[in-house]
Amino acid sequence: MANTKEKPVDDVNPEVKEAEKAEEVEEQRDVIEKEEEEEEEKDKSFEELRLDPRLIRALTKKGIEKPTPIQQTAIPFILEGKDVVAKAKTGSGKTLAYLLPLLQKLFSDCGSKKKKPAPSAFILVPSRELCQQVYAEVSSLIELCRVQIKAVQLTSSMPLSDMRNALAGLPEILVTTPACIPKCFADGVLDPAAINLLLSYGYEDNLRSVASIVPRRCQCLLMSATTSSDVEKLKKLFLHNPVVLTLQEGADKEEPVPSNVQQFWISCSAQDKLLHILALLKLEVVQKKILIFINTIDMGFKLKLFLEKFGIKTAILNGELPQNSRLHILEQFNAGLFDYLIATDDNSQQTKAKEEAKDEDNKEKTKNKKRFKPKLDAEFGVVRGIDFKKVHTVINYDMPQSVTGYIHRIGRAGRAYSSGSSVSLVSPDEMEGFEEIKSFLAGEEDKDSDVITPFPLLTENAVECLRYRAEDVAKSVTKIAVRESRAQDLRNEIINSEKLKSHFEANPRDLDLLKHDKLLSKTAPVPHLKDIPEYLVDPKTQEASKMVKLARAAMGNCRRSGGGRNNANKKRSRKGGDPLKTFSANGSKRGRSGGVGQKKDGKGSSDGLTKKQRTA
Ligand SMILES: Nc1ncnc2c1ncn2[C@@H]1O[C@H](COP(=O)(O)OP(=O)(O)OP(=O)(O)O)[C@@H](O)[C@H]1O
Question: What is the atom index within ligand 1 of the atom nearest the CA of 225?
């Protein structure tokens, strides 16, 4: 009689095999979680970092309980008075890593009767948006700590008299941008001798503009997610025997993109990008909130007009909008007033705008017509450092023009340990740049590993079902319609921005009334395009969409208010809360190698979902 125990492995019932495999995966997961728990146990608390109790209380009120790795490492050195050069991935908490020790140092100066020239701490950030964000963060900490410290922000658009007024109250902290520096120093608004702590964020270019005026005794802190700066060169300029921190978190080594952001891509022609983004959003296979990056302002308006025909309301953020509007759009998006934001990032926008302007000039020579010309704000930037709250998905509608651009864009999702994903639409023209990004992220040792994997939840069939409608609507979004909407939107925003500036200062709550995702199209969207009829929906993609919605609901229910680190939540989501993660069965330890049932070319498999997906 045959003994089942001695049966060759191949003869074992496939269901038993599946179950064993699942058990193995579960065991592996438990080991990883145990390792992570042990790692967490080794973590230091804010008390152990000798942070002032007032700051710790303020952090608790903000829902922040434990320091992140960069905070644990950098805070003690900064408190010691050391120069620090730190590179840590996006969303890892670099802002508090320098703000907390900075405030603590200023607390001790508060009591001293000796009058110091002001401001003593100088925070240099790459964009106005980041300037506003850092200023808001430092102001809220000061308020929560109830200390007599004053912070101000200066931007280059401010008249000199306003700059002088802002500095007249002897602020201890100044937050500003590189573009503002020449103005501050040239007109004697600021005394560089006063600066004894300089913080620069994303430092390469920023520092050159202040190199000649920073006093030698000044403590310098340089923070970045992507820098390639030569520390040796910087040493000669500013740094005194700096501590160089390159944060290696767990198994992530030096990867600049957090491992909690799953990266996907879809291969499609440039013309088919509208069709694909429609499928992603309309079939709800990506989770909200969603930040969509494009490379030109016109493309942003084209996309907005296209999507609104299908009942998808989006807001637009770009460097030609007035500053008030930009800050307001960011506030509303962060507050969750709308789910889709189409953004043009700084670098790509500047270069493309130059091209556009050149193009316009040439045309203008032939046609002597008055044309709408963009005026861009040199201090605009939504990619580096801006803390978009609860963005789950970043979509690269256009691919960024550099690896750094990609890292900063993707870093807007998955901030502070939350899970996130990115989907890049890659056309044949963009393939070379995309390969560069992939090989950079894979690193030297791991060249062949797929860090960015094909998006698994959209079948070819699902996309094709929408083609007729998408192409029909795309034709109606003409160049003229785009240009008119862009000019109209800018006019509206300028009027609103001016009219409402003083009103909002007096009535901040009224800001909520001005929604930024309003329709731009002159003709109202036709009702039948708002819903996709049953017969057009591919059943497999529909199944995936249901999972995404379920996961969203589950995440909503278990998410804690206050924004602090939530271990329970973290574990739950790791165990399958995020369908994109659950679906990527071949994943490495942290589920990075993407979904099954995918073709190497970035398209979903024609078969659609895998066995595992169907079971899910
Ligand atoms: N110790 C902490 N615990 C939980 N959340 C934190 C902690 N420290 C910071 N955060 C939150 O993490 C988010 C990201 O922080 P921050 O903006 O400082 O990241 P960053 O490293 O500067 O990212 P980037 O390089 O993209 O600018 C913020 O919402 C912040 O409030």
Answer: 25
